[in-house]
Amino acid sequence: MNTNRSNLMWAGIFVGPWVLGFLLFTAYPFFASLWYSFTNYNIVRDAEFIGLYNYEFMFFKDIVFWVSIGNTFYFAITLVIFGTIVDIFLAALLNRKIVARATYRLIYFIPVLVPTVASSLIWIWVLNPQRGIVNYLLEAMGLVGPNWLGSTTWVKPALVIMAIWGSGRAIIIFLAGLQEIPRHLYEAARIDGAGPITVFRHITLPLLTPVILFNVVVGLIFSFQAFAESYIMTQGGPANASLFYGLNLYFHAFENLRMGYASALAWLLFMIIMFFTLVVFRGTRRWVYYENE
Amino acid sequence: MNSTSTVVVTRRSKSLADRGRELLGRFGVHLFLAGFGIIFALPLYWLFMSSLKEQSEIFKVPPDLWPVNPRWMNFPDVLEVIPFWTYLGNSFALVVWSTIGALISNTFIAYGFARLNWPYRDQVFILVLATMMLPFQVRMIPMYIAFHQIGWLNTLLPLIVPSFFGNAFYIFLLRQFYRTIPMDLSDAARVDGANELQIFWSVVLPLMKPAITTLVLFEVIFTWNDFIGPLIYLRDNDRYTLSIGLRTFFTLYGARWDLLMACSTMFTLPMVIMFFFGQRRFIEGITLTGIKG
Amino acid sequence: MKLGNVSRRKVVKGGLLGTFGVVGAASLAGCGETKTVEKIVEVPVEKIVEVEKIVEVEKQLGVNAARTDAIVVEKVKKVEVAASQLNRQTVELWSGFDPKTHGKVGGVYGSIIDIFNAGNPSHEVKHVIQPWGQINPKLLTSVAAGNPPDAVRNWYHALGGHAEAGATTAIDKWVKRDAKTWKPEDFLAGPVAQTIFQGKRHAVPLSGIVALLYTNLDLAKEMGVTVPANFKTLAEAEAVGAKLYKKSGSKIKTLGFSPSMFSAPTTWAAVWGGEDVYDGKGKFNASTDDMKTLMNWHKGYADTHKGSELVAWKSTYGTGGFGRFTSDGPLYTNLVGMAGLSSWWFSDIDKQAPKQNKQWQAIPTSGSKKYRTSDLNTNVYIIPNGAKNAEGGWAWSSFLTSPKQMERKTVADSVPAIRKSLDTPFYHKASPYNGVALTDIFPNTWKLPPFGSYGVFRKALGTAQDQIYLGEKTVDAALADITKATQSDIDAKAK
């Protein structure tokens, strides 16, 4: 067949654009932001090298840094846990052969298509304490709805609920995962007299673990970077209760003009994401089932 | 989706009790799906109803569940309050150019990873996937500074040009598709003396239509929804995309929920319509990247 | 006056048409200066007629500025054609005064630009409309890129940050040069103080956004609540607010008096004399006696009136001026019995509730030794660092802040920073709150100098206020947080 040389040439032609893009849009900013993280830089004046000061500032001087870490972990972990449960549950229901399945699927999927800015506005309005439909319905059920976005207790759950509402993508992935599970396993279990819950626990769930892993990793990466919703809806309030890591970073970069410090924050975020991704993958040995093993 | 129907033939005749249980089960499934479905549909219902309310009605406590006198004029009114057509034009330009960029670059690059053999290919591919883990925030500041230095701020270029250099997610997506096309086809063409470009263009690409549709759908929705990119790079009102325009509208008219909801509806609708046309490809794309990873 | 001066230098070079410009500038500035008129002889007669017409209109403006603006614009447009033949330098001006969305102010602003352009022989303003929220981020990148505009409409609260970042030009040299025509002494002390950064003038003061206490007397009467002619203390105001709240059956949450009304938390800090927090030399401390009194008052208010409701209210309307455009706001249904208002609301409220009996007054202090009434967020013009036509930026900024133009512009907008403009029969008539601003607010404005970490301070103060309303932090802890956040930012930026 082809010689090695011509193979290399074609690889260069096809993959070359990616290499160029990688150098320009990934490698360069990756290292540049590392450099900026050691400087004091406000874009008007030249960057000044200040060693590790930005990192020192982050851990010991920035009083909202730890608040933002706490908020982000709360959001990420709650969202991943509850999101996964709700999504699997809905996917399992959608997997049943029932009437109007396509319609149901559509209802769960449409929120994915709503642009972030629109969905943020919709949720501000839906959660309005006096005029929103959520508290109206809660009141009809005899419950007193909270102040949602105006409450330090409820603002994060509100954002988690909103994120789950928009998680139709994950539902579709779970659904596909469920359909991959061979029918004969279910049939066999049924013959053995296993109930639906037993079947779910011992067949569905173990076979779904690779998909769960995928969604957990994607969910974590996504929620650690959360920015737009809280930026539009709460600006981090009330009392910094929805000040997420990405929001704090944005404020420092573009409102307080400390580009150097913001770069340091970005680098730490990268390391946090790396760390958690590795932890999740490491842990997978214990709970993810691979067919080929 | 998969060929399970052959297994179902083993259906045995059922006892009456079995049938009753099954009926109840089905009812339960519908109950849950409909219940959750209402919750999922509620925000969009509220969006649409609010967009038809009069200004005086929108602030009523308790709120009306639907407008007493639907006011369709809210939609044309939005056009008078904000330069909707300008925003739409910018969004449109962004979507078209980014999609062209993504289409050209990714089909090309993914081909290099899926259908060419070259040393360290799989290692490089892991590097491609790894870039997905790099948070946007790490690139944000150096890219902002770089684009500012070459005078691209306040233009669509920082949002469009990178799409011409490939994107890890799409490369992954297309690679999955490319791998389903038998290598024999390429080999046969090679024997006939075709070079890789010819094979790419006239043998493989024609078989990639579904994949290309998927990519286009994803890219259109992504760029249409994008918020943080335009937020950082665009400064002038007449350069804004719809997502930034809507957010500016919100900060200026924070209490005109009638118009805000009407505008949000107009912003969301094109995506929903598009989804109806490309539903199958869309779900296929999500499944392929989420399951077969 | 000042334009007479600036342009006289140009006359020598400017020749025939340049001379014509001098007439326009001198008369249009409304100062009636005649020193330069000796050279008019060289100007074609019909042009002089045009100019004289404008002068005529200008005179009328003293009676009713707003009504004749349209006439001026028309006349000026014609003169502009002639003026455009001059070899002039462009002044790129940024502001958010979009005539489409700013009603009367937008129109008036445009007409002032027309007048400037018709009259100035050396500079021509090119107005670039920017959304207000984008002006500051865009300004910094343009300075960094080396292509900033020549004049930018700005605010005190952002000035410190800009000046520290090196984005502004000190204007002292021009002030010194044009000392005869543009005098800082003409301006009120408060606004002037707010333009001085580390001993140098970094902005031209224009007008102030001041806060006042507004009371809907009709509503109070309807509810059977008597309102004193002037609240001496905030406790008095609170008591009346509580009565209103009670009489409404506690159903309408907005009826009464709310300390969270101001979207800028610094307004209340100013009321309590919080300017001691910063010494102007790098030392910041929020735990002053005045700030403690302030925060304790917030706490007391939250304890009696449910602070969580206040925060929820803010979360819905915070960015929209507390329901300024809503039925909750004072404008549509007049539900709010008493509210703190910023000056730019005044024109709205008069328009929305023209027949309503209103009471305006300075916000009384409570328990403070000093008497301060407002943070007075002074509107300013800055000339960015590296502006290509900085001279033109100054020409425009000082032109706009001349008494005549100030008088016209601020009718529908905010309170002018020039004593002379403020104290005219015309302005007294045009704005009912004017008396309060002149006697109570301007002499007592906040004296906190602009500094680079002002934005961080403001944000931290807002958070502290939230925390106290929600009972999440003690007053001392909240104040300590403000100090820590602001001081560490000051230190980091000085690194």
Order of strands in the sheet with most strands of chain A = 1-2
Number of helices of chain A: 13
How many separate structural domains of chain A? 1
| Largest protein interface, residues of each chain | A-B, 95 and 101 residues
Radius of gyration of chain A: 24 Å
Q: How is this structure best described in words?
A:
The complex is a heterotrimer of chains A (293), B (293) and C (495). In chain A, strands 1-2 form a two-stranded antiparallel sheet. The mean pLDDT of chain A is 89. Chain A has helices spanning 4-36, 53-60, 63-94, 101-113, 116-126, 133-140, 155-165, 168-180, 183-191, 196-224, 228-233, 245-255, 259-287, and strands spanning 39-40, 48-49. By secondary structure, chain A is mainly alpha-helical. Chain A contains 13 helices and 2 strands; from the N terminus they run αββαααααααααααα. Chain A starts with a helix and ends in a 6-residue tail after the last helix. Chain B has 2 domains: 15-73, no CATH class; 75-291, MetI-like (MetI-like fold, Orthogonal Bundle). The longest helix of chain B has 36 residues, at 16-51. Chain B starts with 15 loop residues before the first helix and ends with a helix. Mean pLDDT of chain B is 86; it is low at 1-11. With 495 residues, chain C is of the alpha+beta class. Chain C folds into 2 domains: 2-209 and 377-444, Periplasmic binding protein-like II (D-Maltodextrin-Binding Protein, domain 2, 3-Layer(aba) Sandwich), CATH 3.40.190; 211-375 and 453-494, Periplasmic binding protein-like II (D-Maltodextrin-Binding Protein, domain 2). Chain C has helices at residues 2-28, 45-61, 65-83, 103-119, 132-145, 156-165, 172-177, 189-193, 217-222, 234-247, 266-271, 289-305, 307-317, 343-352, 390-400, 403-409, 419-422, 425-430, 434-441, 454-469, 475-494; strands at 89-95, 123-129, 151-155, 196-197, 200-201, 204-209, 211-216, 338-342, 358-361, 377-382, 415-416. In chain C, α1 (2-28) crosses α2 and α12 crosses α13. The two termini of chain C are 45 Å apart. Residues 1-50, 60-68 and 319-323 of chain C have low confidence and may be disordered. Classes of the chains: A mainly alpha (293), B mainly alpha (293), C alpha+beta (495). Chains A and B meet through α1, α3, α4, α5 and α6 of A and α1, α4, α5, α6 and α10 of B.
